[in-house]
Amino acid sequence: MNWSWLPEFAPQLLQGLGVTLLVFSVSVCAGFVIAVPLALAQIRGTWLIAKLAGGFCSTLRGTPLLMQLFLFYYGIGSLFASAPAIREGLPWLVRLDAIWYVLLAFSLNFAAHEAEVLRAALLGVPRGEIEAAESYGLSPLQVLRHVWLPSAILRVYPVLANDVIAQLKTTPLIFTVPVVDVMAVVNRVMQDRLLVYEPLIFIGVIYLILSFLILRFFALVGRRGPQRWLA
Amino acid sequence: MLSWLSSVLQGYEWLLLRGLWQTLLISVLAYLIGLAIGFCLALANGTGVRSIHSAIRTYSYLFRALPELILIMLLYYASGDLFGWVFRLFGFGQAQLNGTSAAIIVLAIVSAAFACEIFSAAIKAVPIGMVEDAISLGMGPMLRLRRIIFPIMLPLALPGLANLWLMVVRGSSLVSVVGVMELALAAEQGAGATKAYFAFYLAGMALYLAVALFTLQLFYKAEKYLRRGQLAI
Question: Which residue of B has its CA nearest to A203?
Fold first, then answer.
């Protein structure tokens, strides 16, 4: 076992870890915010809107994130560059950093998964609960904010915890596009030092620790009662 | 339609279809081997021997908690090394495991951990009374497995198994990172060669989606068949 690379690459590894955690936390938060309207569109939307939202979700859920990442970064990026109107009119859009495409791809992917979970959860809330809130004179938005959504989230709390950890497990994919996350640094170590097992074991342990921390966080919030933050 | 498609893909559509074939081959074999290993692990888990139980728990926890990409890279290199070592040990000289077989082995080991969980949960859901009835009628373990546990367990396990299948298909795209030829890598190569990035990645995604939607229908039909004669829920 050769660990001599560790001190030398420590600053880069930390920086990469920061990028990984940034993509993870932004995509979880943004994905969840996008998931709510996506789920509602499937439940309450007109036929066309419901079909569109459903199709969007199953497309993103049925295809590998790797392909979506490539489609967004290389595909859309190259479309921008090849359209003269965008190239001259909005040059900043063409020069957009890779990290923005990564954030977009990861957020939309998480949103599609969560919309499916939320859809089932929202449908599972008893009608009486919503009718009671309505009869108190709450506006539709207030019903959603104070009754429907909290009640739905409470129902699927363990599933949410699982999905957040699943989202963490997808983050090593970032390194397939030119964004330097912790996996990219590990990959560089593997190529520079001709090592295979040590860097991979190292990053495996990092991910084990991270997923353990997230699990603890969800257990802690779950014990204190998530309703305190929700209602 | 077809001529438009080939004008967009510029003669690389065969590359994509070969990639699709490789993806299906890798996924189906890895899935079946994974199911077989997972089922054996679930049965071993049910024997109640303490050491077996904790070993299986560690395996399934580790393989479900670690990112697939890291597992695939780790196992890919490890299986290659192990294979070469075994070959040298028996005096066959230098030998290399080919990429596709390594990918199948790797994905099978990863999916076995998930399959073990699914089967364990489904076996636990078989009413214990039925198993006891079968024992009291003098059924042996194999007959019991075939006639009692399987027919009750399978429809319960099927939704989880369908999810696992989709996971394996999506996960098979990850082996492109270590350079195994399949659909994701085919799309990447086609895109790189023609510079039609958007068209190739979109086409690749469409093929993945078609596989997912088609096979989900098969799972749906299988569940309906296995649930024949049962009350609707």
Answer: B70
pLDDT digits (tens, 9 = 90+) for B63-117: 888 998 999 898 888 888 888 888 888 877 666 778 888 889 989 999 999 999 9
Query: A194-212 in b/e burial notation, b at 16+ Cβ within 10 A?
Result: ebbebbbebbbebbeebbe
**pLDDT per position as a tens digit, A21-72:** 999 999 999 999 999 999 999 999 899 999 999 999 999 999 999 999 999 9
pTM of the model: 0.89
How many CB pairs below 8 A link A and B? 101
Of A58, A62, A204, the CB nearest to B66: A204
User: Cβ B208–A67 below 8 Å, yes or no?
Assistant: yes
Q: Report the CATH fold assignment for B12-226.
A: MetI-like fold (1.10.3720)
* CATH architecture of the domain covering A5-230: Orthogonal Bundle (1.10)
Cα-based angle B220, A169, B206 (whole degrees, multiple of 5): 45
Domain boundaries, chain A: 5-230
Contact (CB, 8 A) for B141 and B107 = no
